[in-house]
Amino acid sequence: MNVNANASTKPFGSTQANTRRAVRTNELRPANDLMCYLRRYAGQKPDVAALWCLGIGIIVGWKIKPW
Question: Over the chain (67 residues), what is each successive 10-residue block's mean pLDDT?
């Protein structure tokens, strides 16, 4: 089995290792888990993630009214 071919199918292998390590030590890391989830989601659906960022940016910009 080619290890490099398997590694390329998992773009965030190090974050999965961090998640496994946190589970083994019974540590809860909700911020880390949320960031891992958002990175994976943005990698799978970049158009939806971009629209969310645009929408949040418009709302924040409208609320702080920089002009």
Answer: 49 57 73 95 96 95 82
